[in-house]
Target: Integrator complex subunit 2
Amino acid sequence: MMMECTSLQFVSPFAFEAMQKVDVVRLASLSDPELRLLLPCLVRMALCAPADQSQSWAQDKKLILRLLSGVEAVNSIVALLSVDFHALEQDASKEQQLRHKLGGGGGESILVSQLQHGLTLEFEHSDSPRRLRLVLSELLAIMNKVSESNGEFFFKSSELFESPVYLEEAADVLCILQAVCRGLIKNGERQDEESLGGRRRTDALRFLCKMNPSQALKVRGMVVEECHLPGLGVALTLDHTKNEACEDGVSDLVCFVSGLLLGTNAKVRTWFGTFIRNGQQRKRETSSSVLWQMRRQLLLELMGILPTVRSTRIVEEADVEMEPTVSVYSGLKEEHVVKASALLRLYCALMGIAGLKPTEEEAEQLLQLMTSRPPATPAGVRFVSLSFCMLLAFSMLVSTPEQEQLMVVWLSWMIKEEAYFESTSGVSASFGEMLLLVAMYFHSNQLSAIIDLVCSTLGMKIVIKPSSLSRMKTIFTQEIFTEQVVTAHAVRVPVTSNLSANITGFLPIHCIYQLLRSRSFTKHKVSIKDWIYRQLCETSTPLHPQLLPLIDVYINSILTPASKSNPEATNQPVTEQEILNIFQEVIGGDSIRLNQRFSITAQLLVLYYILSYEEALLANTKTLAAMQRKPKSYSSSLMDQIPIKFLIRQAQGLQQELGGLHSALLRLLATNYPHLCIVDDWICEEEITGTDALLRRMLLTNNAKIHSPKQLQEAFSAIPVSHTQVMQIIEHLTLLSASELIPYAGVLTSNMNQLLNSGVPRRILQTVNKLWMVLNTVMPRRLWVMTVNALQPSIKFVRQQKYTQNDLMIDPLIVLRCDPRVHRCPPLMDITLHMLNGYLLASKAYLSAHLKETAEQDRPSQNNTIGLVGQTDAPEVTREELKNALLAAQDSAAVQILLEICLPTEEEKAKGVSPDSLLRSVQSVITTSMPNKELEEGEDNLLCNLREVQCLICCLLHQMYIADPNIAKLVHFQGYPCELLPLTVAGIPSMHICLDFIPELIAQPELEKQIFAIQLLSHLCIQYALPKSLSVARLAVNVMGTLLTVLTQAKRYAFFMPTLPSLVSFCRAFPPLYEDIMSLLIQIGQVCASDVATQTRDIDPIITRLQQIKEKPSGWSQICKVSSYKNGSRDAGSMDPDVQLCHCIESTIIEIINMSVSGI
Model:
């Protein structure tokens, strides 16, 4: 369509800029050929009315006219501009419609009439308007052909445009008609190097951009945006790179191509990768190929930053005769390191993503660059890491023995210089760790892990075949890093100072982790314990994600041997003294020191290690016993000294920085230390650390800070004389945080016994309780032991025993062997119950752990003596049952003791206090009809210490029953004083679960249990009038009827005398049982009366009354309502059991009748 343009003259950037800025001085300096190219624009500018009416533009316009006056061609251009463009536009539109309708380029034309000569002759002989029409007609014919070709390139010969004689005139006409770059790009080919049209389009746009270099980058942006003409984008970049002439910095070509291949736009990446692949498939790559030009430019840039030119032959000589520091290995200049890294990444992307196959020259120069030695800077560390990963990813770059030797020498240099680089550059994540890590992966044949490592370091996802790593594996495992060398070297690697998630890259911890997984340390008898301990001590937040997996795999290497043949091949655990050193500051109550030696992160990690170790030790007990191994467990004294709850609370405030450590610690705590996970404690912590606590801290004065534990002790000593000082100090202490209260814990607990004396204000007791609960959130175990020892009963001439944490876990009931005065001091009783609940939970965990520890001790002997198959597990089952029985006995004993505490003492009984009266007082306070005097008496009863203690005990029993309903069943099968039944049923909300086992309790052969079951049921029916209660009550009535027929006289009296009042409760709760209960009472009365009649041969008046009541109960209701009927007064003195039972039956019936008539 257009002739070859090699001989054509184009507008220079200088001329274009002068024209663009209308710089008349620069335009006047142009030569005639250069000025000729600008004539159409200059003539238009001179003739058209300007928008700028300033004086300066008027002067410039005169100069332009003067400039044009000497050029002959101006006249023809003026004639072109004098055409009626409106008419020309209308004819062009009609011409375009006509050609579209006819569907071809030939035929009639509206713009020009039939040509009598050729197009060139017609153009020569025509005037200016006709010349415009001829060129426009030819352009429309070409445009119509383009639309028919559906965007495909085609070649069309044009006599007018290919004639060099009329090229200038045709160009003038085209300048008048104009064109746009975006259209050329948008309609261009996706791969311009593949077709003639693409190359022509690229050349045209490239020349346009050379004319105006400032627009080159915008055109390149259009190329990338449309994903068309990739060769044009590269060509424009090459032109721009040559213009900028930057030697040290990263060139625009490297940045542009790297952005295309390593950017986030997958479409652009695929488009440019196709350009590279297609360019390589062409058999011949000439210098005119844009791809060839790009590769050549990149190679020149690479060679430009290489150190001294080296050959692989020199390496061999140097390896034998020279030191590694000779000049043949001169280092990479510091100013070239960043550019070298960018070039390496670009070549990785070209080869790994775009599929570029390097030439021998490119491979040789790349290897020279990769094996160069950069300075010890962070950029140098990055360069070495990239070079190493590139060697792993593209092993085909090393093809000859000389090149392989060069690579081995360079790797040896890396190993030797790694420590120097790390110390000088200040970068913790050095390439030495990466070398170790790759060596370990090769030894364990984890090739996929190496591929992931390479891709991560290079920052791109490339395809690496595992088979391509075979030679590198041989070099690493046999020549450079044997497994023994790896383990010995890893231990000597310094730990990472202040290791945190902010330190990225490959660190020593990654290497140690892999070596622990492969059991290399135990295999080669290299101790790693000290290194791990030092690294745990050198940690900070945010937590590095590799720390927890490192601890887990380390624990596994301690407990599990590397092989069954060598059971002693294990790592050593951290010693107890090393653990205590980390916690020394918080153990001493010095938890708020600003400059702590060990960070909270280190303390939490060591705590995680201890808890995980103990859990893993218990979980692997059977396996270890089978291997006849018994790793040492950490002592209970060590665990007692570690402030677990304090550390957990610290971790709670750092959950974001600690990652998964906080949740992992909570899981271990719930499993091994359930007494530190009591729900009430968590709720209490929320109150202590909430908004109210923050407001209280704002009120904190200097007075609260100046009170020392010694002053608090002096104030407690003065309690018998004055309470004011103690009250003032402990009120100030409530404003302190939990950690700040730790130094006062010993004084507070040791003086609790003094608070039991009479006359101590209730406010002091409540404040001490509050302080104790705050301390309980940070140091519960130590606090509990101190409190239990402080509350022991003081007996003269008897030395008090000091209990330990272990004593209290073995026997939690020690807590209840406190001073009896505690039982009537609600604030201290609240503390006691809290400790009891905790130690009951701790005892369960302790016994379960003890069972696992000793489960296999007696199995060998039992297996030898018991030779039957299937009986080997019998001892373990028996031990589990014994443990459960012991725990059940322990819990039930605690409940029975607590219930006994609820009973009034002899002194309280003398004052008329009883559980039943207390319950009645509660019910009477609820009613509004009682007199004021009775109301005051009820309030007095409710506000007594016994009543408050009973409420606290009932709350604890409710929690225990909910946690394990079997405890409730066991306690009620054991029984307790019936006078406590009103209290337990009304005060323990979970007592309704007793309805499930009352039928079983009634079925017991012991008469006492049957009586207790019916009495319990009577109270439950009143409290829970449910369908289930009705069915159980009906069962109880039937059982009573059955027992009437089988019991002897003595047992009948013993059974029915306490159970007959329960029938009144049944009727009150469930009126439908009235008929059955009345029939039962009459039947009991008849049996008793018949016995009396047979003995005395006298008809007792009671029999007559019972018979009348049976026949006409309604008539007796009036008698009962009118007066309090006196039952058998003449028989009141009779001691006969049947007579007494008859009187009791009569009283029961009358009470039921009164209740039914009054509607109560």
